[in-house]
Amino acid sequence: MASGTTKPSKHQRGKVDSFAGALTKKGIKLLAVDFDKTLIDIHSRGVWDDGLSKLASHVRPCMRDMLEAAIHKGVFVAIVTYHRQDWLIKELLQKILPKKVAKQIYVQANTAEFLQRQRAEARGSSNDQTQGASEVGGILRFIGPDWKGKEAHISSVIAEISNDHKVTVKKEEILLMDDDIDNIRIAITCGHLAFQVQETVDYDSFDSFQTMLLL
C-alpha cells in the first residue's frame, strides 16, 4: 500500500526533480495526471466515502513528489479523472502537499457541470456537423466522439490556464500520465506526449520516463 505522507530520501527526490527538469527542457507546459491507479494505487470507482485519511494512504509517494517537483519548475499540473468528487481530490492534494503547491494544481473531474457542458457541446456539434478536435484561439477543443480518453478534461484545463494566466498551451506541449493504455493511445493520436503508469511505478521509474521524454 502506498502512503501519501511518506517522505522521500534525497536520492528519491533527485529522481523526480531530474524528471521535472526534463519536462521544461522538452518544452512541456502542462503535465496532466490521472487519478485512479496513477496518483493513487487503487481504483476509487468514481466516488469515495471511506474518509480522506484512508484515501491519502493510497497515494503513491513518487507520483505525489513528481507533482510538487513539476510545480516548482513552473510546469502547469492538472489531475484529469473520471472520478466525480473534484472537491475531495482538492482536499486530498491539500493534505499530501504543501498548501501553496496544492492550490496551483488544476483538477478536472467528471463533475455534473463538466458532463453537462460536454453534452451541450456534443449537441451543438451534432447540429453543425462538426465533430472531432478543433483549435480555437490556440485552445484545443474536443467534441463529439473525441471526448474519449482524457481529451475533454485536458481541453477544459487548457481553457482555464488561458483564462487564468493568458498562456496558450499547444498540443505538443502536453504530457499525459495515465495507467489506461487506451487513454494513452488517444492522447498520442491527438498529438500529446503520453506515458503509461504501470502498477509497479516507483522513484526509479522516472529514469525511464526521463529517457523516453528526451528521445
How would you portray this structure in words?
It is a single chain. The protein is an alpha/beta fold. It has a domain at 10-111 and 172-213: Rossmann fold (3-Layer(aba) Sandwich). The protein has 10 helices and 7 strands. The protein has helices at residues 10-26, 35-39, 52-56, 61-72, 86-96, 99-102, 112-128, 151-165, 181-189, 205-213; strands at residues 30-33, 76-80, 106-108, 132-136, 139-143, 174-178, 193-196. A 5-stranded parallel sheet has the order 3-2-1-6-7, sandwiched between helices. β6 (174-178), α9 and β7 form a beta-alpha-beta unit. The chain is globular, with a radius of gyration of 17 Å. The protein starts with 9 loop residues before the first helix and ends with a helix.
